Amino acid sequence: MIYIKNNPLRVDVSSCLRRPFQWGVGALLLGLVHFSCGCASARLTQFHNFAQAGTAYVKASQVVLDEAGTASIEADSLIAIKGREALATPEQRRKFILSNNDELRKRLLILGEIGRHGQLLQSYFETLGALADPKAPPTLGAAAQGVFESIGKLSPTIKNASLGGLKVQDAIPQATNFVVQSFKVKALESELKARSKDIERELALQEAAFKVISANLETDLTAKLELEETEEIIKPFATAKDLPKEWVQRREEILQARVAVASSESAASAAAKLRESFVALVENRLSETSITQLISAINSILDLTQKIQKATPAGN
Amino acid sequence: MDATQLYSSTLELLNATILRMLSPEWDAKVQAASPEQRLKALAEMLQVQHARLVLGNAVLQDISGQLKANEQGLLDGQKALQAALAKLATVESVLNTISSLINIVARVVPLL
């Protein structure tokens, strides 16, 4: 569920993938109208908006992580089924499937760690949003530190992880130079001064992880779609007496998905926008345009996953 | 070529190879081949998939020594396979180049 503060809006992402973010843009922009007045409530809104955008990013990127795991497993399963007859004995078949299961499990573990890393960042941004409130309890600073420490424990595993031959660490973008602005709420200012540079690096890690995941997702989905195109479109067209009644629709879905796969880097782009927006937030220059661009990038993730899901319905 | 590049180029080629082996064009060639070659094509497809999973999950530091030790073999194998895939030569010649490269990859990471 996404809860847009100051707006009585609750939307279920699982049942409605795209609309919540379109609504979300409107809700966030309503809040941003107050940006120019420079008062404490505007600052509060700014941090809340960023936290909402962070939540939207984490939810959308989680769908990409799920798709990446599913695509790896499905591609491997389809290849295993296609090639099964080449494994002559039960022992050969057992060894093959057990070994590939082990490798897929390792991949799923890394995807899970990246997901948890994103969720902790979301918690951190929510805590920052709460810290921006002048009436925030003093314990929030310690809460932010606790969340940050948990993030730090996950980072080394993700940095050292390799997915499909690409090491996450090698894809981390260079650090951005920025200066933390003065904020009226001193607890917020001291939190940002203590940890914003490290948080920028953690966001860069998300960006790197999704670059690596995108490359893998593209290969696995293409493999799956190649097989589906051969088995469901080309073979029946070439050899069947009558074509299945869903043949035209499946052809369209598979070909559309092939095009969508090419934009699999959308999650990495959204992570990059989130990092840019965080720096702008800390420098007290987060604009309506920045948030709109961020939400638009998040919507691109949802476009991608929707097209993939449409072409590869569960159980297909 | 350093170990990182060797690792990435080998894996990229394995990815490209599995995609080619799943393509309708390759499927048509295999369907027209002898039953023995068809079975060999399926077996090599499984080997390529297994190799790309194992190599893809491997940590570079752990295998950089083996990569460097097999550098020439990997480079020659890559070159031969790229050429065979580019012209989509006979099923037999493509399978032979795949098999050669997989044998060298098996010296870098343990395969089935």
Task: Tell me what you see in this structure.
The complex is a heterodimer of chains A (316) and B (112). By secondary structure, chain A is mainly alpha-helical. Chain A has helices at 19-32, 40-83, 90-131, 140-160, 186-239, 247-261, 266-282, 288-311; strands at residues 2-4, 9-11, 162-163, 166-167. Chain A has one domain (44-311). Mean pLDDT of chain A is 84; it is low at 1-37. With 112 residues, chain B is mainly alpha-helical. Helix content of chain B is 85%, strand content 0%. Chain B contains six helices and no strands. Chain B is elongated and about 45 Å long. Chain B starts with a helix and ends with a helix. Classes of the chains: A mainly alpha (316), B mainly alpha (112). The interface between A and B is medium-sized, with 34 and 31 residues.
Secondary structure elements and their pairing?
The complex is a heterodimer of chains A (316) and B (112).
Chain A: E1 2-4, E2 9-11, H1 19-32, H2 40-83, H3 90-131, H4 140-160, E3 162-163, E4 166-167, H5 186-239, H6 247-261, H7 266-282, H8 288-311
Antiparallel strand pairs in A: 1-2, 3-4
Helix pairs in contact in A: 1-2, 1-8, 2-3, 2-5, 2-7, 2-8, 3-4, 3-5, 4-5, 5-6, 5-7, 6-8, 7-8
Chain B: H1 3-21, H2 24-32, H3 35-57, H4 60-69, H5 71-86, H6 91-108
Helix pairs in contact in B: 1-3, 1-4, 1-5, 3-6, 5-6
Key attributes of the depicted protein:
heterodimer; A: about 325 residues; mainly alpha; two-stranded antiparallel sheet; 8 helices; elongated; disordered N terminus; B: about 110 residues; about 85% helix; about 0% strand
